[in-house]
Write a structure and sequence with these properties.
The chain is α+β, with helices and mostly antiparallel strands and 527 residues long. It has 17 helices and 13 strands. A 5-stranded mixed beta sheet has the order 4-5-1-6-7. Helix 13 (251-272) packs across helix 14 and helix 16 (458-484) runs antiparallel to helix 17 (496-506). The two termini are 38 Å apart. It binds a DNA duplex (9 and 13 nucleotides) through residues 29-30, 47-52, 91-95, 176-182, 209, 211-212, 236-244, 268, 278, 280, 290-294, 296, 329, 331, 333, 363-372, 410, 413-415, 417-420, 422, 523.
DNA sequence: GCGGATCAG
DNA sequence: ATGGCTGATCCGC
């Protein structure tokens, strides 16, 4: 099931300020209309630029957003959701996916009954209305939650024929991951609904790539992921900050802005409890052209001084490339993150992020990128996420796609990181349930090499130290390497250190047949 | 890997 | 004349 709060920011504001009920108002940039006035009059969707809305509706009252308030309310809503699926997945501040299979089985109720009850409970406890979609997978549920909005629900039967009929008439754009661009490109080849995909299938892979084709095929068939997991179990991949300003020119001004940006990024990295080994500089010219340039740093950093120090040459080079450039935006982003958090022996080397399977995830995220067509772990009753053994609909899949048995796809729908607030908080306990078992005081031993707390257990602790020592050695070697011979073009067959590191990295991973090559293991990461 | 581009909220 | 910010993925090279 997918739940979506109705005009969330506006709804929360309305609780505080009932006098707004009669006036058209919006929060922040987007037009969010509990008042419905702007929406009805101008037929706009919830995401309209504030200044555009103001032009259309001069009486519009724009409120300054108060994210602390919205987050607090979101937690209230989530506390209710937790009673229906403790492992629900927050997709953003006002959206979530729930698997209510167990809830329904345990109580002998239908999904529609459970969801109706959940929506009633949310409304009673939080005074916020939510809409919900009930369907066989996340992709369908997301679409369905928009059908009877606001304050409604829609169930799409878990039936092949019903689903195929539903998809046949569904405009591609309704599917999460199909944006403006792809919509237009598809329309250009006669594909406007998901049903149209079938007729044009012979062209699609060539035109849009295998990933997009697999994604579109999944759209036609109504396939999507069925796994739902708490947002905090997803691995964060980057932390960045950027800001827009009036026209900015000149090296001195650039440096000042860069310094400020680095300061901001340090704060964000601190909050995210991580540091990064790759630094990406982004600029937008006054002409709105966007450029990014990245640099790999010798080690992961988080301090503003270090960020600035490494970004400055990148900026200088950009200035050289484009003399006299005038900026309207500057941003810095760290990727190849290394956690600076407390936990956990296994996660330490980035081998296996806590949940134990993220290393297995691969592409297929949210964007159009979210074109991942195949799916997560197969759960019970999840045959719709599986490619049929034979292709009854006549798709001829490239082998690699058809055979993909593992893999996650990671979801074509909203990324769990998008939350308008950065931190990803753990799911709250169910509302109305007692605080069972206060989290026992955990004990940690600090590793003498990396300084990170480890579980206070002798055997894993010693194993960690072994690992840490070898890792430290490799890191130092690589760094020395990088410093001593920067311009040397790597010759084939030389770098035994890399080989060693790669072998090292495999440790702690689940065993894999010796000849099976996992392309995802290519990356080297040092923390 | 890098850089550009698309997408979502 | 549809903006700004954060984060993710995919493609071509």
């Amino acid at each position: 099931m997918h739940v979506d709060c109705d005009a969330f920011y506006a709804a929360v504001e309305l609780l505080d300020r009932p006098e707004l009920a009669d006036v058209p108002f919006a929060v922040g940039g987007g037009v969010l209309t509990t008042c419905n006035y702007v929406a009805r009059t101008f037929g706009c969707r919830s995401g309209m630029a504030g200044f555009v809305a103001k032009k259309l509706c001069p009486a519009l009252v724009l409120l300054r957003p108060d994210f602390a308030k919205y987050n607090a309310k979101a937690q209230e809503v989530r506390a209710v959701l937790a009673a229906y699926d403790a492992r629900f997945e927050s997709a953003s501040i006002d959206e979530a996916y729930l698997n209510v299979t167990e809830y329904c089985a345990a109580r002998g109720v239908t999904p529609a009954e459970a969801v109706a009850r959940m929506r009633r409970e949310v409304a009673e406890r939080t005074r916020v209305t939510v809409s919900a979609g009930i369907a066989a997978n996340a992709k369908l549920a997301k679409i369905c939650s928009n059908i009877n909005k606001p304050d409604g629900q829609f169930e799409l039967a878990n039936d092949r024929t019903v689903i195929l009929d539903f998809m046949r008439a569904l405009p591609c754009r309704k599917v999460n991951g199909v944006g403006r661009v792809l919509e237009r490109e598809l329309a250009a080849v006669g594909v406007e609904t998901c049903g149209d995909v079938y007729g044009q299938r012979q062209y699609l892979a060539r035109l849009f790539g295998d990933k997009a084709f697999a994604f579109l095929a999944a759209c036609h068939l109504g396939l999507g992921r069925t796994r739902v997991q708490p947002a905090e179990e997803y691995e964060r991949k980057s932390v960045g900050t950027e800001s827009t300003f009036g026209a900015l020119a000149g090296p001195a001004a650039f440096r000042a802005k860069l310094r400020w940006t680095a300061d901001e990024l340090e704060k964000d990295l601190r909050r995210a409890e991580c540091k990064g080994r790759t630094l990406v500089l982004k600029v937008k010219l006054h002409t709105f052209e966007v450029y990014t340039r990245q640099v790999v740093m010798p080690c992961a950093v988080w301090r503003a001084d270090d960020l600035y120090h490494h970004a400055l040459p990148v900026l200088a080079k950009l200035e050289q490339e484009m003399p006299g450039m005038v900026l309207r935006l500057m941003g810095l982003r760290c990727t190849h993150l290394v956690s600076t958090k407390k936990p956990d022996t296994r996660a330490f080397f980035g081998f296996r992020p806590r949940r134990g399977d993220s290393a297995e995830r691969e592409g297929g995220g949210s964007g159009e990128g979210g074109l991942g067509a195949s799916d997560d772990e197969r759960g019970p009753g999840s045959e719709w996420e599986r490619w049929p053994e034979t292709e009854p609909d006549g798709y001829e899949l490239p082998d690699e796609l058809a055979e993909r048995e593992e893999d996650s796809g990671g979801g074509e729908d909203a990324s769990p990181y998008r939350r308008h607030g950065k931190e990803i908080t753990a799911n709250p306990k169910a509302a109305g349930t007692k605080e069972d078992g206060a989290a026992e005081e955990e004990e940690w031993w600090d590793c003498p090499i990396c300084g990170r707390p480890q579980t206070a257990d002798e055997k894993p602790f010693n194993e960690h130290i072994d690992l840490c020592l070898s890792r430290q050695t490799i890191r130092e070697a690589v760094q020395k390497d990088a410093l001593e011979q920067p311009p040397v073009v790597p010759r084939a067959g030389t770098p035994e250190r890399k080989t060693a590191a790669r072998a090292e990295k495999k440790r702690g991973r689940p065993p894999r047949p010796p000849d099976a090559v996992d392309p995802r293991q290519k990356k080297l990461r040092f923390g």
